[in-house]
Structure formats: C-alpha cells, structure tokens
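Operator note (shift B, R.M.): manual run for Glycosyltransferase family 2 protein requested after the automated queue skipped it. Running by hand, logging everything below so the morning shift can see what happened. Input copied straight from the record, untouched. If output looks odd, do not overwrite the archive copy; leave it for review.
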Amino acid sequence: MSSPEVSILMAVYNRLDLTKRCLETLERSMEGIVYEVLIVDDVSTDGTRDFLKTLGAPYRVFLNEKKGNFAINNNLAAREARAERLLFLNNDTELAPGWYEPMREGLARFPDAGFMGNLQTNPSTGRYDHMGVVFAPWLTPAHYGQHYARVPAWLKNGYTSWSAVTAACCLTYRDTFWAAGGFDEAYVNGCEDIDLCLRMHQQGRRHYVANESELIHHKGASPGRKTFNDVNLARLKATWADYIRREFVAKDARLFAKTYLRKTLVYPWKSNLGKAWACVLILAGLSRPGRRG
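Run finished. Output pasted below as returned.
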C-alpha cells in the first residue's frame, strides 16, 4: 500500500448524518490523491460507532471507551497518522473538488507556514463564516468575513496571512504540529486551535488561508459544542493576554471592526452596541487599540 501524502484527522460525536455526508463529499473530492482518514469516535450513541466499524481503507477508526474532547481526540489521531501532512477536518463539513490542492500548494510555498486554512460558508445563514482569524481589542478571537455575503476583492486569489485560522479545516506538517506541542488538552472543544496557532507564532510560524479553497461548514453542529465556550475563552486570555495585545491587536483592529460592524448590521440583536461604537471609532481613526509606544 502506498504511503499517504496526507492524513485527514477527524473527531466525531453523534451526528451520523453529517459524518456520512462529509465522507461522501470527501471521497468524491480526493480522487487521484493517496490519503488516509483517521476517525476518532468520542462515545457516540446514535449509531455512529456501528457505521464506522463498516469502513475499510482508507479509513482507520478509533473508538473511545471514555469521553474525550477535540484536543484529546485529534492528538490521538495525529500520533497514529502515517503522512507528513496532517489535515484536521470537522465531520460537519461538505467538500467540493479542488478544495485540497490550494492548501497543499500553499503549505509548500510558505516555508514559515504553521497552519494553512481556507474559506468557509455557513449553510444556515447562506453567508461566509471564516476567511481568517483576527483579534478584538478586548482580546477575543473572531472570524474575519463572518456574515459576509461575498468575498472581498482583495481575498479572491492567492493566499492571505492571518493571526490564526480555525481548525475546522486546516493543514500543517506533522513536525510543525508536534514542535509546538500539539493541541492543549485542557481546552474542552474550543480555543485549542487558537492556542496552538499562538504557540506556533511564538516559534516564528505564520498562518495562511488559501483563498481558492472553499468548503461548507455546518458550524457548531456537534452536541455540547459550545458548553465550555466561556471557560475556554477565559483560559485563552489568562494565558495569552499580553502576547495577543502586543502582537495582534493593533494590526487586526480595522479588520476586526469591519467584521463586527457587519455582524451588527446583519444581526443587531446579537451585537453589543458599546463594542459596535468602539469599532466605529477604530474605522474613523479616533481609536487605536494596542498601538505600540
């Protein structure tokens, strides 16, 4: 059997319907590419485990006996992976031909690459959800481009560098992943990807998005996905506040402000008017958060 060029790592918990759809679209989109898929089931109760037991090559299945989390399960898969490229992929994604190749080419193009991400749309809103990650003046990571109906002209081709990317779909080299320590397993289904992006950044790595790679992401579809959001964010800020403020806030301020105001226009009931006003001041040049000396 040929060695795979990429190991696709997937943690699943229930939502068998989405897992089946993801794997169907994955198989159609990866024709001609030698790959393996490592799936870690986190004690599903909806028939997922029985389905996974029916899968043969290129699938390798691991069935947890006790509950883990995103970080634990993906670290397990990464330890078992055989390829030098690791691609982390949520089971609530849908893929079309041509999504993988721009990510692979970008990872090879940029010697300093940590993670290579892509554009993602949310079918529940019909809008984009992720074009890259930026940091708010209050240190919270945010998806740039969230709620955009179209991709801005400056992002339609090539590659863009970002402060971080989401692990819903991201590609890296095995050595890069483990040199930064893998995912911190103390995070419970949230912020572990941002934390790892920051550790890679400390090591001189930079994160990119392949703007010609795009997929559908049924965001937050796994049961219990958001249960620990507040705890995870508090841990991220406690660990990284000074670093985020020093390295990212000033350069991300305008991009964050544009995204937050777009959210305010589309979903005003989900926005904080004080934060929206702070974003207006940033775009007007009357506030410069994180500006150095």
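Quick read of the result: The chain has one domain: 6-252. Residues 229-266 form the longest helix (38 residues).
Leaving this for review. - R.M.
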